[in-house]
Design brief:
Length: 196
């Protein structure tokens, strides 16, 4: 390293030129290297936060504020009406196959239906019935944790109200920022996309 003013060779530890007394500046190459390193750090930070356009809530929802703390996730992180409807159809096909092996009594079929729903959407099955698993969906609470049996039971029985209101409880998904049906609102649950 040389002094920019008198050209005298300098030691790396010197902060003042012993020849002309000028303050020693950091070599331009070192500055350039520092700037490059800083740019790389910023680029890595942007990538970890989902790029220049902001975080990818859908893929990294765990890193962001949960719904009970105010700010909802981006709408793409929640299960859409279409995906949930296809999941429900798959579940009804599975239940139909299951019913074909059971005695044709309303009590048995009702118990099996509710058991499938309650257990399937609880933490026992990681928050997803067969239909929801097929569609990459999961039922969670406001902390993004799978729900217990009691909350799952409350959610399942609340669906009766959604049906009773001429399916308006389900149509609410289309107009909700967090894609919640009536039974989700009543029980504080959310259907989210499983992180890829």
């Amino acid at each position: 390293m040389k002094c920019e003013y008198c050209g005298r060779a300098l030691k790396p530890s010197e902060w003042q030129c012993p020849g002309c007394g000028a303050a020693v500046e950091v070599n331009r190459e070192e500055k350039k290297e520092d700037k490059t390193q800083e740019e790389q750090k910023n680029r890595k930070k942007e990538q970890s936060m989902g790029g220049v356009n902001g975080p990818n809530y859908n893929k990294y929802y765990e890193q962001y504020e949960t719904p009970d703390r105010g700010r909802p996730l981006h709408i793409s992180a929640y299960g859409s009406f279409g995906a949930r409807m296809i999941a429900a159809i798959i579940d009804y096909v599975v239940l139909g196959l299951l019913f074909s092996f059971l005695p044709d009594t309303s009590i048995v079929l009702t118990v099996v239906y509710f058991a499938y729903r309650i257990i399937g959407e609880s933490s026992i099955c990681n928050g997803a019935t067969i239909g929801k698993k097929a569609m990459g969906l999961k039922v969670v609470d406001s902390n993004f944790e799978t729900i217990g049996l009691s909350q799952s039971a409350g959610r399942t029985f609340s669906k009766i109200l959604s049906w009773a209101l001429i399916c308006i409880g389900f149509i609410m998904i289309l107009f909700s920022k967090r894609r919640q049906a009536l039974h989700d609102r009543l029980t504080g649950t959310y259907v989210i996309k499983v992180r890829a």
